[in-house]
Design a protein that fits this description.
By secondary structure, this protein is mainly α. The protein has helices spanning 4-28, 35-52, 57-85, 87-90, 111-136, 139-153, 168-189, 197-214, 219-224, 230-234, 236-257, 264-271, 274-283, 286-289, 296-325.
Length: 326
């Protein structure tokens, strides 16, 4: 008969193993990149607050949790289906920003575990969406939620494999830019209008830049499995110019935002990110982008996305505070 002490040790060991596995699954979702799902919710919600002068914390938190969960599920689903296509296996120069989590390739987790965890995360995100729909009774949110869920899964999953068909970068710009900014704005205002269009386009451009710049290190692996990205299709020099043009377009939109009093501070604060943008443009040169495993441009672009989104958010918060004090 086992002593109480030995039973306690066995339970402790099992608990530690289960805890370690949960931590591993958490990191497999690539949580450090969840700023991409937090950013549009912050921007849209704070713009909504600046517009109507109130803030619904419950809907904001539900939207944030749902978006993050779906993003996590999408990351792991991408790992699974890029494993099946051979994409991640063909990648000889993975970076911290591209080439997948490598958890399958390194034998840390099985493909089945990755897929199951992805489905659980997507289900949790869907549950948050259902709660939001019950609270708002909104067909608009229902439509956005279905599009977001299907887009997240079928970005790499067959038969659609959206990321393999020349449109992946634009799909991400919609799913992690335009649509969630509009959705978050609607949750705070209950209105569908043109006000969120300009900031939504900026957030869409920011995540487009992140996806595009991360495709350069993956060029050879993507081409090997016929993954039709912009970089594979246009090549490094032309894709570098696409990157620079999109970046400049974001600043032109921010300048246009300053015409409107409700978006003046958001546009102004975004222009303050110009020094980071200059660094990003310098890093996105065809010589460095052609180097295997080079990811300095990715580092700067991810920083630019985070700071640019935060700048818009702070601008809308300032506008909301000014309006409430008038």
């Amino acid at each position: 008969m086992q002593s109480a002490e030995s039973v306690f040790k066995i339970v402790a060991v099992k608990s530690h193993v289960e805890y370690s596995k949960l931590v591993t699954l958490f990191y497999a979702s690539r949580p450090k990149f969840l700023v991409a799902s937090v950013a549009p919710v912050l921007v849209g919600s704070c713009l909504g607050c600046a517009t109507v002068g109130s803030f619904d914390w419950l809907l904001f938190i539900l939207a944030l949790l749902g978006m993050m969960a779906i993003h996590s599920g999408a990351n792991m689903a991408n790992d699974y289906f890029d494993h099946l296509s051979g994409n991640d296996w063909a990648n000889r120069n993975p970076t911290p920003f591209s080439g997948g989590s490598r958890y399958i390739q390194d034998g840390i987790l099985t493909p089945k575990t990755i897929l199951l965890t992805a489905l659980i995360a997507l289900a949790f995100g869907s549950a948050m969406g259902v709660v939001i729909i019950i609270l708002t009774e909104s067909a608009f949110i229902l439509i956005l939620g279905i599009i977001g869920l299907l887009g997240a899964f079928f970005y790499t999953a067959p038969p659609l494999k959206l990321g393999y068909r020349y449109i992946g970068e634009f799909v991400i710009a919609l799913l992690f830019g335009v649509f969630p900014v509009y959705g978050s704005y609607y949750l705070q205002t209950g209105v569908i209008d043109t006000i969120p269009l300009l900031p939504a386009l900026i957030v869409g451009i920011l995540i487009f830049l992140v996806i595009l710049i991360n495709e350069f290190p993956d060029l050879n692996a993507d081409a090997a499995v016929d993954k039709k990205t912009l970089v594979v299709h246009f090549g490094i020099p032309a894709s570098a110019w696409i990157y620079r043009s999109a970046l400049v377009a974001g600043f032109l939109i921010a300048a246009a935002m300053m015409i409107y009093s409700s978006m003046f501070f958001a546009g102004l604060f975004y222009l303050i990110t110009l020094p980071i943008a200059v660094l990003a443009i310098k890093a996105a040169n065809k010589k460095d982008l052609a180097k295997p495993g080079q990811y300095r441009a990715s580092q700067i672009t991810v920083l630019f996305h985070a700071v640019g989104s935060l700048a818009l958010t702070v601008g809308f918060v300032i506008t909301a505070l000014r309006n409430s004090s008038l």
